[in-house]
Request: fold
Amino acid sequence: MADLLELDRIHLAYDTPRGPKPVVDELSLTLPSGHIGCLLGQSGCGKTTILRAIAGFEPVRGGHIALDGNIISSPDVQVAPEHRRVGMMFQDYALFPHLTAAQNVAFGLRKLMKKAERAERVQEMLALVGLEAAADSYPHEMSGGQQQRVALARALAPSPDLLLLDEPFSNLDVDTRERLAFEVREILITTGHTAILVTHNQAEAFAIADRIGVMNKGHMVQWDTPYNLHHHPVNDFVRDFIRREALVEQREQAYARGR
Reply:
């Protein structure tokens, strides 16, 4: 299966009064079409910066990012975000509070489809995420899980080549988070979309992803299958990280359930 996404030795940095501050250094990965990838690591390791670079919101200082064989980011190339065919689902969902669920989903389709076609697509997307009955509901009338589904439907509606999800379950309770992680995976498999997820939660990563990248201080330590991360970690950092995070998540779940 051909790779849809390629990051080749990318270098990302932020400008500061003292000069560029490196955030990601010499990071490479590939993701085949139709697969779900995940960047996993603690806050500050560079995960979200990578996602923003793929979306076109952060420039690449070295290396390149290619989508379907075409370079979209490099020191010499910067394709505008709106021309990348990349959809993004933000951590806070970023729904428009004055628009209904249907209107939120339709928002990105205005320039792509005529009115009748747009209405049909909105209904199709709401059915996909199980929210046909909430089409006329406003965000404040919906639960966190329902808002998350609307945000997913909106991101998928224009049929992007690649979907980016930035900590999509972080605002939900433990039980809802776990259930929706599995449901989002099923939706993405059904639609055949390629996606890459950013999270610090190992349970989410292992529930949804075909390939997981364990990161540390701007470096990719291991980009591999969930099975290999568990059974064949490349070094002590990955082995200890996987074990430590699993224990933390077990404690958080027990606390949330009052045990």
Summary: Residues 99 and 138 are 6 Å apart (CA to CA). The longest helix spans residues 236-256. The first strand starts at residue 3 and ends at 16. The chain has eight helices and ten strands.
